[in-house]
Amino acid sequence: MYDDTFLPYELYETDPAEVVEQVSKYGVAVLVEQVNGNDRRPLFREARNLTHEHGDRVVLRQDDDGAEGVTLKWAFGQPWMRTVAEAFFGTEPFVFNPEITLITAEPGNPNPVPQVEEGPGLTFLLYVTGVDAGNGVLRAILGSHSVGKRLPSAEPTDRLVKLNGEMGTIVVIDNDVTLRNAIVREYPRITAAARCYRG
């Protein structure tokens, strides 16, 4: 396991070149607390309201001009995200964050609740709540995206890291990296994700 005091894939700025470098090298980049204090409360309130109205899995379309999910759509429409996606896909055409999937996972479910949609591409995962061992932190096998195939998620490895993060953290994920979901044990977890893909 990696030493949690030194996390080379953690970033504190949204410099697209640095994000792409980390995703290229490790398969993930964790951008610590990118949604600032002023925007966190409305984001959390909006997510809770959407969950209350529509259930624990809500899909928002970016091209829907309705009033629902305005703050989430803003969070996933950041110019730096588009720049990262452009660098990730290079000259290939791609679809940029067409849908946002909001997932609320409550304690009591004996099975892990996935946070990232299956399929090739690049995912931006936003921690609407903080995410840690108590509410099912996502784990990744660093560098597994460059193997050419996804590793079995149960395969033992010393490259397995926990993608802990405070509320407002954004994790950028190459969808070819091997991920392991965890069971929500103590308190709820709310995350939102959008996937860019070739097309």
TrEMBL record:
Domain of life: Bacteria
Protein name: Uncharacterized protein
Organism: Allokutzneria multivorans
